[in-house]
Amino acid sequence: MRTSTLELDGIRKIFPGTTALDGVTLRWDGGNVHALIGRNGAGKSTLVNIVTGALAPTSGSIRLNGTAVSFHSPADARRSGIAAVHQELSLIPELSVAENILLGRLPQKPGMIPGRVDWTRTHRHAEELLSRLGVRIDHTATVGSLPVAQQQLIEIAKAMADEPSILLLDEPTSALSHQEAAHVFTLLRTLAERGVLIIYITHRLQEIGRIANTVTALRDGVSTPSIPIADATPESIVTMMFGQNIRFSRMVDRPAGTIPVMEVRLLSGEGSFYDVSFTLHKGEILGIAGLLGSGRTELLRAIAGADIPGSGELLIDGKTVHPHSPEQMKRMGVVLTPENRKDQGLVQMLAVRANICLASLERSAVNGFLSRRREKRVAQAAIRDLDIAVPDLEFPVSSLSGGNQQKVVLAKWLNTHPRIMLFDEPTRGIDLHAKLQIFQLIMRLSAQGISSVVVSSELEELMDICHRILVMKNGRITGSFDPASSSLDELFGVCIQ
Length: 497
Prior knowledge:
Helix content: 25-40%
Largest sheet: 7 strands, mixed
CATH architecture of the largest domain: 3-Layer(aba) Sandwich
CATH superfamily of the largest domain: P-loop containing nucleotide triphosphate hydrolases
Number of domains: 2
Shape: globular
CATH class of the largest domain: Alpha Beta
Strand content: 15-25%
Distance between the termini: 41 Å
């Protein structure tokens, strides 16, 4: 495979009311992994969409191997050897690995009848591609039956089916544990050694030293000069992104309360978690650590009424509750911000205003009819309180960055005046500044007596903001940690044992 060079010269992209990119000039060479970082709204997704042909720049030029190119569609970019793997998986769970990899280009049998798939060639091609990439996955398996880490590898294999020379990846490990991410890194290093130019977008700054050769940042639509990974200290990376140094340290500044508000007694969910017991106190921030598949998400969903637990007991203020719907638990003051905010936390086609008011329509109603004026007033207050960056209340929520979408989810539930908030991966795919704002919100809720249960794959975050951390493994609680007197290494060791 010939090594490629990608050059961007003065790329600008103007949307109504905002300049997303303002003169981005960069050069990336093949055979390397180039990390692209920046806070939410910095312009990373816009840049990816321009390079892959999904958007046209307002001005500026793109050169591929020294030749000016102009893409009118993603198909144009693919024909020029550019492929992308987006943060949200685009696989079809009901189809096999081979079918997903070759979807849209399945080999056809020759003959008079068009459209007949040559399944022998399909499976042989998929098997050869996986073998060439060093990915050990059964190409006949149904994708929905595989863990997320393997699905991410399949997504990369799908992008590599046409043997592109440039591969862009947007947060490919945001849903993976550190161990699972290592498999993705191994594959990416293999591709880079073969000459592929890899542009790697991530908010997990601790990953950069493990995978990248250079680091480039976008800040408010402007690019910073690329630096070698050897020169990329944590302080310099944060300065590149924000123009200032943002530090995380132990943030909890007051002890948890002593009054029990929720008790979980031997709660079990069929095939996912077993005999889970713990007590949550008023104002407490309780963390739950564990690898993906340990039952963390299923536990939160059962408590929130999204799934019905198989056995056990849940008590709110000492009274037994039988969760059977999110609406029932919302009335009791228990709400869940899901891991998948795009599909489960928001209605992407609706306006920001409508999403913010969706869980508390009664606050915006007059005599049983929704009042647009009241909705606007409620939404404006939430935008102000949570510092949500949105150009217009009527813009669809899909137009917002990941961090601002997450704030809309939080605003939606805060409007219901909850007493217990369940957070499933609340900082997935968002930048440091947005993380800090969400942490400060959780601590502010704690000071108001609102309790939180926080599930996160980022153990450092749990150590920073939680009063107490439970460890889940194979669906069971296997340990309890006091972050003030335990080390990150100790917590990490228990999680992977």
